[in-house]
Design goal:
Layout: H1 2-25, E1 26-31, E2 37-44, E3 49-53, E4 56-63, E5 69-78, E6 82-83, H2 87-97, E7 104-119, E8 122-133, E9 136-148, E10 152-162, E11 172-173, E12 178-193
Antiparallel strand pairs: 1-4, 1-12, 2-3, 2-12, 3-6, 4-5, 5-7, 7-8, 8-9, 9-10, 10-12, 11-12
Length: about 190
């Protein structure tokens, strides 16, 4: 009976050590919305424009076993938190994005492609993942710079997209006299902390 108890304690101890070591080798950081920035830049027949994303969330999981690698990365944006300084433009944006039905824009990594060490805990990273906008999901590559510290990860980069690839008709204003360009560029600086 004593041997069975000791074996049980030994098995539990081994499992705890394995679980603890896994946590040490894979560390998760969560996106800090108040410290992160994300903006959308575009063109129109009148002037260039910018919209700011006010609500985003997400996480990154890094593996430090051997070479640094990203195990998991996901970001979610509240579609109606996309704001300009013009309420009419915001209304057109939400209509184009069909925010009545599709509340979020999401990116979920599916493939960690490569990482180049730039020195000073900075890396050039390329991942591939599912980008879902207005109910349309496409696989896209995303390249960005990543800087790591003990308590935080900073991701900084940009991605150009064609709205029509996601079934989005570029918004128009003033009865169609002002037209928006099909292409937009999303620029981000995401701060993730543990």
């Amino acid at each position: 009976m004593r041997t069975i108890e000791l074996n049980g304690v030994l098995i539990i101890t081994i499992l705890l050590v394995i679980f603890a070591s896994h946590n040490l080798l894979a560390q998760q950081f969560n996106l800090n919305n108040s410290k992160s920035t994300m903006s959308i830049f575009g063109t129109s027949s009148l002037h260039d424009w910018e919209e700011v994303i006010e609500e985003q969330s997400g996480s990154i999981q890094l593996s430090t076993e051997g070479e640094m690698a990203i195990v998991n990365l996901n970001v979610s944006v509240v579609a109606e938190s996309i704001k300009s300084d013009k309420p009419a433009m915001d209304k057109n944006t939400y209509k184009a994005l069909k925010t009545d039905t599709y509340k979020s824009i999401t990116f979920k990594m599916t493939d960690f492609k490569n990482m180049t060490d730039l020195g000073n805990s900075e890396y050039q990273v390329t991942v591939s993942g599912k980008l879902s906008i207005s109910g349309v999901t496409k696989i896209v590559d995303l390249t960005f710079k990543m800087k790591t510290t003990t308590n935080a990860v900073t991701l900084e980069g940009e991605k150009s997209l064609n709205m029509k690839d996601y079934g989005i008709e570029p918004p128009k204003a003033l009865f169609g006299t002002i037209t928006t360009g099909e292409k937009v560029t999303i620029k981000f600086k995401s701060i993730l902390t543990n």
